[in-house]
């Protein structure tokens, strides 16, 4: 498997994608974890691009730990599953910076699937058993990693209402939706998400049994 820098070189040398990649940044954010042997779940973001043009030492700006403004909403939702910064592994599907944020990047899924998905799968397989699930924080991450998600593209909320867990995935491990965006729309403290929370908790208990 090629290194991340070699993959990025191939990506930015493709004329189709060159203009949407920030080609001068090779220092990608590092994955965040505290104790690899204590990891109970993987939290997967899309990429480090942001409207402020910031660069990070760790994914989601987690060099600031629980004070990261980009990770706070995710961390709040993770607490419902007894997950915290001490027992998660946080990574991005695409480690490189783009000139557009994920939602505005029309080539995101194409690039993620062709260039970065095999690299991520290899990384996770080396570190964790296939019973360690992935919590995906963005819709496009779900699109790339879980083929069955196409059934929910026009009504993403059905994933929560029906407590859908994607088990047949491109990462060879369960993928669970834990969307970050929507200006609080997916905040799990809302009463309508109680069924989703309880279903995920039951599933995690089965995985750990």
Folded structure, characterized:
The protein has helices spanning 4-12, 72-78, 108-127, 139-145, 157-161, 194-208, and strands spanning 41-45, 88-92, 134-136, 175-177. The chain is an alpha/beta fold and 209 residues long. It has a single domain (4-208), classed as 3-Layer(aba) Sandwich (Uracil-DNA Glycosylase, subunit E), CATH 3.40.470. The protein has a four-stranded parallel beta sheet with strand order 2-1-3-4, with helices on one face. Helix 2 (72-78) links the parallel strand 1 and strand 2 (88-92). The termini are far apart.
Secondary structural class: alpha/beta
What is the terminal separation in angstroms? 33 Å
How are strands sequenced across the largest beta sheet?
A: 2-1-3-4
Count of spatially separate domains: 1
CATH class wording: Alpha Beta
Describe the sheet with the most strands. 4 strands, parallel
Q: Helical segment tally?
A: 6
Q: Which segments are poorly predicted (pLDDT under 50) over 5 or more consecutive residues?
A: none
